[in-house]
Structures are given as C-alpha cells and as structure tokens.
Amino acid sequence: MASSTTHDHAQPSPAAPESGESRRDFLLYATSAVGAAGTVLALWPFVHSMNPAADTLALSSTEVDLGPIAEGQSITVTWRGKPVFVRHRTADEIKAAQGVDVKALREPQADKDRVKKPEWLIMVGVCTHLGCIPLGQKPAEPKGEFGGWFCPCHGSHYDTSGRIRKGPAPANLPVPEYTFLSDTLVRIG
Amino acid sequence: MSSAPAPVWNNKLIKWVDDRLPIFTLMHGSAVAYPTPKNLNYWWNFGSLALFVLVVMLMTGIFLAMSYTPHVDHAFNSVERIMRDVNYGWLLRYLHMNGGSMFFIVVYIHLFRNLYYGSYKAPREILWWIGVIILLAMMATAFMGYVLPWGQMSFWGATVITNLFSAVPVVGDYIVSWLWGGFSIDNPTLNRFFSLHYLLPFVIFGLAVVHLWALHTSKSNNPLGVEIKTPADSIPFHPYYTIKDFYGVGVFLIFYMFFVFYAPNFFGEPDNYIPANPLVTPPHIVPEWYFLPFYAILRAIPDKLGGVVAMFGAIIVLFFLPWLDTSKVRSAKFRPIYKQFFWIFLIDCIVLGWVGANPPEGHFVLIGQISTAYYFFHFLILMPVLGFLEPTRPVPASISQPVLKEKA
Ligand code: HEM
Ligand code: FES
C-alpha cells in the first residue's frame, strides 16, 4: 500500500521513497517487538505464582532422636512433606554396602560418601523413578534382591546403602543435608 | 457454515433478531439444512454422544463444585458428605464419576471410527488435529478430576504422573516443583488442580465448537469414503440425523444408567475410598482404565526418559497420521489388507490396556514391550508402506452409485 501511493503520486519528498518506507517498517517492527516482549514478560508473574510460595519454601528442619532405634531397626520421619528413612544398620549390612564394586553401579557412589557414621543411614525415602515410597522399613516388608528397599510401583531394588541396583529408577535414594547435634540427636535440613 | 441458501424468516420477531444477529440463520445452516451424506451408519452417532456427555459433565460438575471443598483436610470428607448428606449428591457424583468413563468410551469409539474410515485424510486434517487436542485436554481434565476426592489412588496416581516430568533433562525437577507448588503433592497442588479441572471442560467446549466449524466446512465423511458430489448424495440434517442422534442418546443412556444405578463403582478403585496418606504407597498403583494402554507403553521402556517420550509419542504420532497414511483410498471398505491390520491394531491397544492393569512382572514385561513396538510399527511403518503396496478394491464414483446399481 505505502509503496504504491508513493509511486502513483510521484511527489518529490524530502527523503527517497525507499528510506521513508524502511523507517516506517522499522518503527512497525520495533513496536511489535516491544509489544511481544512486554506480553511475554507480563506472563511471568502468572507462571511464577505457581512456584512454591514463601511459607512453603521457608526451610523447615526436623530433629530426630536416635536413642530408641535399636540396631537393625528403621524409622520414618517427615521432612518437607516427604518421608525420610533413618536406618540403624547392622554390621552385615554395612559390610555388604561397602563391599560393592562402585564402578559397576548405575549411579556410582561409595557407601562412605552416603553416610556420616556408617551405622546410621539417613536418606529421602522417595523412589527416584516416579516418586512412590519404597518398602523395606518394616521387618515384614520385602527388601528387594539386595537386602535394602524395594519399590512396588515399577519394581526398583535398592541396596543397604539405598543405591539403585535393579529396575527403572535412574538414581540412588538422595541423602538430605543433616548434622549430628549430639551422638543421639540429628537435625535434618 | 453451510452451502444451503439462507432461509427467509416469516416470524417478525425472529426476523428482527436475525437481521441484527443471524443466530437463527446460523442454526438453520448447521443443524437443519446442513447437507449430510445419506449413507451414514451408527458409528457416526458417537460425535453427538460425546457432546451430550460433555454437557452432562459440565452440569454435574458445576453442581458438585457447590458442595466440594478443595483442601487436603476437607476434600475427602466433603465428597463423603456429598454421598451421604447432600440431596441427590450420590446421584450427581455417580453421574460424574461414571460420566468420565463414558466420555472416554464414546471418544475412543469415535476415534477408531475415524481410523477405519480414513476420516483424518485430506481435506479433514485440521478437523482431526482438533480432535487429538480435545483428547489431550480430556486426559488432563480427567487426571486432575481424579485427584479431587483425595483418596489413596488420587494422591499416588498424581504423584506418579507428575513425577513423569522429572524425566525432562536439566529442568525436570524444577518443572515438578512448579507443578506441585511445593516439595510434594500437597494443598497447593489440590487447589490448582481444582481450578484447572473447572476451567478445562469449558476449553474443551470451545474446541468442540471449532471442531464442528471445521466439520461443517469439509462436511462429514461416510462409510464409502467418497465426497458428496451431487445433491442426491445428501439429505438435510434435520429431521433425518436429529432423530437418529436422539435415538442414539436413548440407547446410550440405558448403558450409562446401568452403571450409575447398578454398578456405580465398576470403573473405580476401592483404594480411593481410603483417605490419602503421603507416607504409605498402596501396593499396586493403577491409573483409571482409560489411561492403561499409555501406562503400559510408559513401563515397556526400561529407561525413565525413554518411557515418558514413548508415552507422549503414542499420542503425538496421531498428529502425523494424515501423512503417514499414504493410501489414496479413504475407507477400509475398499482396503482389504488395511482392514485386517485395523483389527489387529485394535487388539494391540486392548492388550496394552490389559498389560497396563497388571504389575510389571514376569511375562507381562515382554508382552508389554512387543505390543508397544507393534503400536509404533503400525503407524510409522505399516501405514506408509501399505499405501503403496496394497491392491485396493474399486471405489464407487459417488455415494448414490452403489445404491442405484443394487436396484437395477
Ligand atoms: C471434560 C469433562 C470432565 C471430566 C472428564 C471430569 C472427570 C472427573 C473425574 C474422573 C472425577 C473423579 C470422580 C471420582 O472418582 O470421585 C471428577 C471429580 C470432580 N469434578 Fe469433574 N470432570 C469433568 C468436568 C467437570 C466440570 C465442568 C466441573 C465443574 C466445576 C467438575 C467438577 C468436579 C468436582 C467438584 C469433582 C470432585 C467430586 C467427586 O470426586 O465426585 N468436573 N471429575
Ligand atoms: S516409582 Fe518406584 S519403581 Fe517406579
């Protein structure tokens, strides 16, 4: 449109017709670009409103008294809405966990890098496949082929260090941040 | 929307309105005069049935929402209160609960009808795409609706499905916590699922309008798969197909009400009558039956990301079907080989559903992998190759021709 009018009337204009055109085009493109960028930026508050809110984020921590947990026993505590497994491992379990060839593991990690004290294994009890809670905390529950935990949802087996050994899960059960406040008191988080 | 001439309105009031907003002309063109192939069989009833179920879901859902509380401490009890104390609450809930299953039965039949008669081919590609988008929106809606009663299956189904997104490289965990609004499925998750569960059915309704717009532009396909060529090939929608569609609704209601009144929990899981417990996973998590084939595909691939890609791929592949099917003939009626593969494919989908309902152990693993492979083989290899190799039977010149020949 713009070009045909300019040519039809063939009026002398201060600038060459092409340069007038490109100035308009430039203004149009620039305005559209700013408008589009602004629209995208305006979407961010909506998207971000769905992320964890400040109160949800406020890091909660959980303290666990290890005193009553006898050797061979486990307890489950809740931390950030998720179960955390605390296991008082037996000497056999520790030996089994340490005797594994680390290089052969799906997620290579030595047992000593997963514990602060070998007899206390503390980890988030959420299967790294699709988030079920593995069985093995109670004596009657199946512990899988490696004597640790077994996830019934799609059949993942974890060993006595909580490392993935068989099944669809891609990673070991994660170890949360934790500190020993005393010999029998642990703060998770 | 229709090629019929605009009607002349004699009633003064109708004419006054129509001159300002041609709503009567629009309705006349799309539901009365709309030229419809005269040879449609009963498989063409399922589109109007889907619309009927959608309206039932909207109605029952809106009234359920008046008594439902989207909070982790109250959701389960509010649904129990609907069942016991709210007048006819049990009826609203059972209509809604079974309506979800009916919706998928009707839409899956509708979809397989399209596969059989090649209705996705030119010029109906966009009509087909909108259908696939509606299917995706229905799946999202039903998934989030199932979370609302906050039973054990609600909670753990939601956990497993939202965790699928953690398979996305790099940003996976970030996406999951964004979906949850926290570090696990919790109150923020329930709140947003309720909001979206309320919203999406209206989006589906809008999509259905666009679906019909595309349909009325290209017109209905038919069992012969040849286009309407002369006025003799078509009949007006009203009264011929209005009455046939109403008849279909009647038969469908007998089926639907059988479940509502005599087997209301047939499609459900008993575990969902146990309140959600974030610390105990039920021994056997199964999704609703309509997701089972996709669940089987997810589990068939022994790799997390691979499984998720295959599961979504199983639906995404449908978008490409109009080009994957290279045959020039639409209807399976004239495609003797495709016709048999169609039934094999249907059986494959049922086998996938059966595998999805069982724990992933023993021979189920292998059967699941074979039927997953066959699912993709059907679309990616068989459909393109068959179009070139298959000797098709002669296609009639018009919709009227076979009828006229029989008479002669
Ligand atoms: C596309 C249409 C829809 C589908 C497929 C659908 C599906 C579902 C499903 C499967 C459930 C779980 C039923 C149960 O196990 O108890 C549910 C629950 C619910 N839906 Fe919908 N729904 C749809 C539309 C709507 C609409 C439009 C509303 C309106 C707000 C709504 C409101 C509710 C409410 C309040 C519940 C919780 C009560 C209950 O569990 O029975 N739904 N929906
Ligand atoms: S969630 Fe544990 S194996 Fe899938």
Low-confidence spans of chain A: pLDDT under 50, at least 5 residues? 1-8
Helices and strands of chain A: which structural class? Answer: alpha+beta
Tell me the overall shape of chain B. globular
Low-confidence stretches of chain B: none
- Sketch the topology of chain B as an H/E string, one letter per element: HHEHHHHHHHEHHHHHH
CATH homologous superfamily grouping of the largest domain in chain B = Cytochrome Bc1 Complex, Chain C
Name the shape of chain A in a single word: elongated
Q: Order of strands side by side in the largest beta sheet of chain B? A: 1-2
List the main descriptive attributes of the protein structure presented here.
heterodimer, A: 189 residues, alpha+beta, Rieske Iron-sulfur Protein, 2 domains, three-stranded antiparallel β-sheet, 4 helices, 9 strands, 28% helix, B: 408 residues, mainly alpha, Cytochrome Bc1 Complex, Chain C, Helix Hairpins, two-stranded antiparallel sheet, 15 helices, globular, binds protoporphyrin IX containing FE, binds FE2/S2 (inorganic) cluster
Structure in words:
The complex is a heterodimer of chains A (189) and B (408). Chain A has 189 residues and is an alpha+beta fold. Helices cover 28% and strands 23% of the residues of chain A. Chain A has four helices and nine strands. With 408 residues, chain B is mainly α. Chain B has two domains: 41-219 and 231-285, Cytochrome Bc1 Complex, Chain C (Up-down Bundle); 292-391, Helix Hairpins, CATH 1.10.287. Chain B has a two-stranded antiparallel ribbon. The longest helix of chain B has 32 residues, at 187-218. The model of chain B has no long low-confidence stretch (mean pLDDT 94). Bound molecules: protoporphyrin IX containing FE (HEM) and FE2/S2 (inorganic) cluster.
